[in-house]
C-alpha cells in the first residue's frame, strides 16, 4: 500500500511549482492568441528549418512518424494509464485508480477545449510529410506524454519504488516527452510553441493533481 504523507497546500512546493508552470502557460497562450510577432517569427524559422530536413531525409521522417503515430501516440499513452488503472483496482486502490484516470481525463478535456478556443492553424506546406487533425495549440501529443509520465513517476514515489526504478522511468519519461515534442515539430504538424504549451500545461496539471491528492489524504488534527 502506498504511504500518503501530509502536504499542506498553502505552502506546498508542489503546488507552487504547479502555479508557476500554469502562469507560464497562461503567458504563452496570451502571446499566441495575440499573434505576437517575435514569437511567431521564431516558430516559423524553426518549422521551416526542420521541414527542409524532413523533406530531404525520408528515412528520418519515417522513423519520426513511427514514433509519433505509434510509440508516443496519445492513445498509446492512455493505454498505459488504462493498464495502471486496472492494476490499481486489482490491488484495492480504487480511489487512487480513479484519481489517475480522472487526471488523465481532465488533461484530455483541457487540451481539446483550448484547441477549440484558441483555434490556431497548423503549419501549412506545399510538400507535407505528415498530417494532423484539429487545431494546433496546445500539442496533444506533448501534453498527454507529460501527464502520463508525470503520473507514473508520482505513483512510483507513492509506492516507495527504489531509486533505480524511478531513475529508469524518469529517463524514459524525459526521452519520450522531449522526443514526441520534437517529432511533432519535425513532421510539420505543430509549431514549437504548441509543444512548449503542451509540456507546461501537462506538468502543471499533474502537480496540481498531486498536491490536491496529498491534501485530501493528509491526516487531520
What would your notes on this structure say?
Helix 4 runs parallel beside helix 6 (140-158) and helix 7 (163-186) packs antiparallel against helix 8 (192-217). The longest helix is centred in the last third of the chain and has 26 residues, at 192-217. The chain is globular and about 60 Å long. The chain has one domain (9-122, 129-217). Helices cover 75% and strands 0% of the residues. With 221 residues, it is mainly alpha-helical. The chain has helices at 13-33, 37-56, 58-71, 74-90, 94-118, 140-158, 163-186, 192-217.
Blueprint (SSEs and pairs):
Elements: H1 13-33, H2 37-56, H3 58-71, H4 74-90, H5 94-118, H6 140-158, H7 163-186, H8 192-217
Helix pairs in contact: 1-8, 3-7, 4-5, 4-6, 5-6, 5-8, 6-7, 6-8, 7-8
Q: Give me the strand/helix succession.
A: HHHHHHHH
Considering DSSP H and I runs of 4 or more, what fraction of the residues is helical?
Answer: over 70%
Mean pLDDT across residues: 93
N- to C-terminal separation?
A: 23 Å
Total beta-strand segments: 0
Domains counted in the coordinates: how many? 1
Keywords:
about 0% strand, about 220 residues, mainly alpha
Task: Give a quick rundown of the structure.
With 221 residues, the chain is mostly helical. Helices cover 75% and strands 0% of the residues. It is globular.
Amino acid at each position: 500500500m502506498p504511504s500518503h504523507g501530509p502536504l499542506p497546500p498553502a505552502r506546498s512546493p508542489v503546488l507552487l511549482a504547479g502555479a508557476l508552470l500554469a502562469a507560464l502557460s497562461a503567458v504563452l497562450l496570451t502571446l499566441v492568441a495575440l499573434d505576437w510577432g517575435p514569437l511567431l517569427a521564431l516558430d516559423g524559422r524553426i518549422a521551416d528549418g526542420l521541414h527542409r530536413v524532413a523533406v530531404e531525409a525520408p528515412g528520418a521522417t519515417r522513423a519520426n512518424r513511427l514514433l509519433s503515430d505509434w510509440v508516443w501516440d496519445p492513445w498509446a499513452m492512455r493505454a498505459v494509464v488504462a493498464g495502471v488503472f486496472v492494476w490499481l483496482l486489482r490491488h484495492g486502490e480504487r480511489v487512487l485508480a480513479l484519481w489517475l484516470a480522472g487526471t488523465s481525463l481532465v488533461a484530455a478535456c483541457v487540451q481539446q477545449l483550448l484547441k477549440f478556443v484558441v483555434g490556431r492553424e497548423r503549419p501549412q506546406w506545399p510538400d507535407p510529410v505528415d498530417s494532423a487533425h484539429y487545431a494546433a495549440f496546445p500539442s496533444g501529443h506533448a501534453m498527454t506524454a507529460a501527464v502520463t509520465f508525470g503520473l507514473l513517476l508520482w505513483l512510483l514515489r507513492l509506492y516507495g519504488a527504489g531509486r533505480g526504478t524511478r531513475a529508469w522511468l524518469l529517463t524514459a519519461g524525459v526521452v519520450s516527452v522531449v522526443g514526441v515534442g520534437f517529432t511533432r515539430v519535425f513532421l510539420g504538424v505543430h509549431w514549437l510553441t504548441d509543444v512548449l504549451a503542451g509540456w507546461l500545461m501537462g506538468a502543471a496539471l499533474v502537480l496540481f493533481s498531486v498536491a490536491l491528492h496529498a491534501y485530501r489524504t493528509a491526516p487531520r488534527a
